[in-house]
Write a structure and sequence with these properties.
Length: 913
């Protein structure tokens, strides 16, 4: 008994708890609904204010769905022009209020122009019944894509209320059954929970209802849009065709195949086909099946079901004509499988049926079928482009069993690239065009696009392949594989310039490339791309023309360090260059240093730094072993030999040789990259005065070279000990000269001077003095130097605090401007500067008064120091405090209190009494 009673009590308590929880849940839901309605009303008011609608415009929609309007907006035409933002906003609002869509769903649905047009027709009371039927079908298809599956049926039911006859559902008249058939068929057609048979039956029901309510106009109300409809909407078109008493046997056959085409091959089974049509409600299914099977067997053949579903009756007839000309449906499968535009399908059929022979037609279909799916439809829907492809298919021969044209077409990713390719192939002899296609098809997709977008690269490549055959062509193909677009362009530029000699070079390297695997080819391509980019920078920097001789030198210079092509040089004839440097020492210090730089380049990191700065191409140095080194040797070879020839000419004529700017710049950059050896060598070659002059010149050039010059000066100033170890005995004098040069640079030299002033090096004090001199000099340099000193003050550096106090005492404008920032964020360093001003006595009064007027914690500290000075009898401090009494805030209060306490009774305070 006790157990039973306890159980009953527990059960009652649980039930009470559940009831309480349910009540709380309902209350929370009510609160959320009320909040949603409040937000929706506010959003509706905002949208209405923004759009300023007229009486004929749609009511603005709530931003937070799904709140249904209690009173739908009055039906009427949309006032905004089609395609405008206003029109889209109005459609979105109407879709929410009329069909219960959330705002995101309405926005998503209204993005499509055809969908918005259909929405306009469906809710426009002036639309004909046929227009409203077709609009409902188009919208139904879009609803299944824009609305979550669990909400589709609810939205479809709201759309169904707009179908002609839906208003008769609750009336007891003869048309009520048709109305119910229309709405139920519509929902079954588009519902995601319907089976295919259910969708097909819904399509036929909707079609019959449409015929009853809208008449024969409904059969033509879709126009061209019918071709673009897919999924359930396509079933609706098929249902309308079967309900059309004027449809031809062929039309009805294709419609029947559409209704029964969900299962591939279902139309081949007469029983299954008949059952599917009967289940769908098609009248006389047996007769329709007979006609459809006969038509399909004779025309569609083995084309995939998805391809069959895209073909119009006229296209099926064209297929039948192609069959009579000796082609099979399988010949069309590859290309038709990529097309979703009737115009493109029409063009393919036209080209095939217009070919001179079945072989020519098959060649075109094979080429068209190779097109990248991303461009196939656009490529073949244009009659001129399709005609060009058909002509190229006729003219370009097969290479044994290999179709190079088809290979390159498969890699073309845009219509623009395709047009560029067609233009290049059209402009070449067919045999050369085939070789061109063979090279291009081996490029990566991105690189191919780059090349096709460069007309000169295509022209150079056409010129190159004209001289290549057999092993030479194969070597070129392998060498260019995995090149980037820019590298490929440079390679063909050099190869075209070298002419017949390039074919000789390719035949020479062919054996080394014959058995190379794909991974190694990738390494070759990357190394060659980067090498060509670096070499291109050298060519531009030296001002060389790509003559046949230069092209040969560049190609051989680059190729010699590419893996598997040739042995890599371990060292670059250092002995020869060292000898040449010695020979040039008394003739041209610039060329002597350049030769010495070439002799000392034995570290890839140093070489890479020189080249990156020299060429400006921005390539990393993650090249294959020795690649950057090989480029450096090429740079020295090209540049030094050219300049030595100029030097010899000047000596022969008795004139002075002037090194070009690139030599001077290269030497400076090279010296910085190879510090300290390179720096010491530069000084040894140019002397102290010459070094400073060269660096001043470099600093005036701006850009990266100027930055390197400042680095060079900083190295000279801050590394006296290392320079002495490298044999520069005058290092201390040189360091002092470097500080002076940085000071002469003005604002541009401040950063390096600041580094030196902080670094604790031998010239730190000179750098500090240089900064102070710049602050006092005025202008942009003064402002930059003042900022540097201010930063050091904030970090508590005593030399900076001493300088700051002196600069403020002397009223140096640049530092006074910088000190204004201290009022906002006074540091301990700034307080220390104020304390130093106090130590100046009478000389510091004016500066303290100026700082006091800035206010804040800085001003308070400054006025306190003035008070201290006043108490010691400094007369100027009294005047300053009296002037500061009128300053608003705490500064004025402190000044007033001090002044009153000392002089308020008219008797000045005598210190010490």
């Amino acid at each position: 008994m006790t157990t039973s009673t306890t159980a009953t009590s527990t059960s009652a308590a649980a039930a009470e708890a559940r009831a309480l929880a349910e009540a709380r849940r309902r209350a929370e839901e009510a609160r959320i609904r009320a909040e949603q309605q409040r937000i929706a009303a506010a959003e509706r008011a905002r949208v209405l204010e923004r759009a300023r609608p007229t009486a004929d415009t749609f009511e603005a929609a709530p931003a937070v769905a799904p709140v249904r309007a209690t009173t739908p907006p009055a039906a009427g035409p949309v006032s905004a022009p089609e395609g405008t933002p206003e029109e889209r906003a109005q459609i979105e609002a109407r879709l929410q209020s009329e069909f219960g869509l959330t705002r995101p769903e309405a926005v998503n649905l209204a993005r499509n122009d055809n969908t918005r047009a259909a929405a306009r027709k469906l809710i426009d009371p002036n639309s004909t019944p046929a227009q409203r039927f077709s609009a409902a079908i188009q919208l139904g298809q879009s609803i299944t894509q824009a609305v979550p599956a669990e909400r589709v049926e609810a939205v479809l039911r709201k759309l169904g209320e707009k179908i002609p006859g839906a208003d008769l559902l609750n009336r007891g008249n003869a048309q009520a059954a048709n109305a119910r058939q229309a709405v139920d068929g519509y929902i079954a057609l588009f519902s995601p929970t319907s089976s295919f048979v259910g969708q097909a039956r819904g399509a036929v029901q909707l079609a019959n209802a449409a015929k009853n309510f809208a008449g024969t106009e409904v059969f033509s109300s879709f126009g061209d849009q019918a071709r673009r409809l897919e999924g359930p909407a396509r079933l609706a078109i098929a249902g309308l065709t079967l309900a059309d008493p004027n449809a031809t046997t062929q039309d009805r056959a294709v419609a029947a195949l559409t209704l029964a085409g969900e299962a591939p091959g279902a139309w081949r089974d007469a029983r299954a086909f008949t059952r599917a049509l009967r289940d769908a409600g098609v009248p006389n299914p047996e007769g329709v099946v007979r006609d459809a099977q006969a038509f399909a067997n004779s025309t569609l053949g083995d084309l995939p079901a998805d391809v069959q579903g895209r073909l119009t009756p006229a296209q099926v007839s064209e297929l039948a004509r192609a069959g009579a000309n000796g082609l099979e449906s399988a010949d069309f499968a590859a290309v038709l499988g990529k097309l979703d535009d009737p115009a493109a399908i029409d063009e393919v059929l036209r080209q095939a049926n217009g070919a001179a022979s079945p072989e020519e037609a098959r060649r075109f279909l094979s080429v068209a079928g190779s097109l990248n799916p991303a461009v196939a439809t656009d490529a073949l829907s244009d009659a001129g482009r399709a005609e060009n492809l058909a002509r190229l298919a006729r003219e370009l021969p097969l290479d044994g069993n290999t179709d190079h044209l088809a290979g390159v077409l498969a890699r073309v990713g845009s219509v623009d690239d395709l047009d560029n390719l067609i233009g290049a192939l059209d402009g070449a002899d067919p045999a050369d065009a085939n070789k061109l296609a063979k090279v291009l098809k081996n490029l990566d997709v991105g690189e191919l696009s780059d090349v096709l977008g460069r007309p000169q690269a295509l022209a150079d490549l056409t010129s190159t392949v004209r001289n290549l055959d057999g092993a030479a062509l194969d070597a070129f193909v392998k060498l260019s594989k995995n090149l980037d677009g820019a590298g490929f362009e440079r390679l063909v530029q050099l190869s075209a310039a070298q002419g017949d000699e390039f074919a000789v070079l390719m035949r020479q390297i062919a054996p080394a490339l014959e058995h190379v695997d794909g991974r190694t080819l990738g390494t070759v391509g990357r190394a060659l791309s980067q090498g060509l980019e670096l070499a291109n920078g050298l060519v531009g920097r030296f001002g060389l023309e790509i003559t046949q001789e230069v092209a040969g030198k560049l190609l051989r210079g680059v190729l010699k360090f590419v893996p598997v092509v040739g042995a890599l040089p371990g060292l670059y004839d250092a002995g020869r260059l060292a000898f040449e440097a010695a020979d040039l020492a008394g003739r041209s210090p610039d060329l002597a240093y350049l030769a010495g730089l070439g002799a000392s380049l034995n570290a890839v990191d140093a070489v890479g730094g020189v080249l990156l700065d020299l060429t400006g191409v921005g390539v990393g140095v993650d090249l294959a072993a020795g690649a950057a080194f090989g480029i450096a040797t090429l740079a020295i070879d090209l540049g030094l030999s050219a300049e030595v020839a100029k030097l010899e000419l000047a000596e022969a004529n008795g004139t002075e040789y002037e090194p070009p700017e690139w030599v001077r710049a290269t030497n400076i950059i090279g010296a910085v990259a190879t510090f300290p050896i390179g720096t010491a060598g530069f000084v040894a070659a140019h002397g102290i005065g010459g070094t400073i002059d060269e660096l001043k010149w470099a600093a005036e050039q701006g850009g990266e070279l100027a930055e390197k010059a400042k680095d060079f000066l900083a190295d000279l100033a801050g590394n006296v000990g290392e320079l002495i170890e490298q044999g520069i005995e005058e290092a201390a004098e040189l360091a002092s000269e470097a500080v002076g040069a940085l000071k002469d640079l003005g604002a541009a030299g401040v950063e390096k001077l600041e580094d030196l002033a902080r670094a604790g090096v031998e010239v730190a004090e000179e750098a500090q003095e240089a900064l102070e001199d710049l602050v006092r000099s005025g202008g942009e340099a003064a402002e930059a130097a003042a900022e540097a000193v201010s930063r050091a003050v904030g970090e508590g550096l005593e030399w900076a605090q001493d300088q700051a106090a002196e600069l403020l005492r002397d009223g140096v404008e640049a530092f006074e401007n910088v000190a204004e920032a201290w009022a906002e964020d006074v540091s301990e360093g700034a307080r220390a500067v104020i304390d130093r001003l106090h130590g100046f006595g009478e000389d510091g009064v004016e500066a303290l008064q100026n700082l006091s007027e800035l206010g804040g914690a800085l001003g308070e500290h400054a006025v306190e120091q003035l008070a201290n000075l006043a108490e010691t009898g400094i007369e100027g401090a009294k005047d300053a405090l009296e002037a500061l009494r009128d300053v608003p805030g705490r500064v004025g209060e402190i000044a007033g209190d001090v002044w009153d306490s000392i002089w308020g009774d008219g008797v000045p305070l005598v210190p010490g009494i």
